[in-house]
Design goal:
Length: 69
Amino acid sequence: MSKKMANILIVDDEVTSIEVMRCLLETNVNTQVAETGQKALELLEKNDFDLVLLDVDLLANSTPKCTTL
């Protein structure tokens, strides 16, 4: 029986941070990336994520709605 792969959304605007997270999570997970809060909201409306990793520094430049979903 195969395990379901976790579906993780990474919300960060720094490429280095994104790559580090992807390397740490590379086994048995699917990752998608959003560089802005608005893009994150769009992806959240269309996909079912098991986990969202959100850069809190990005919130200052984003919509507060990202943290209420």
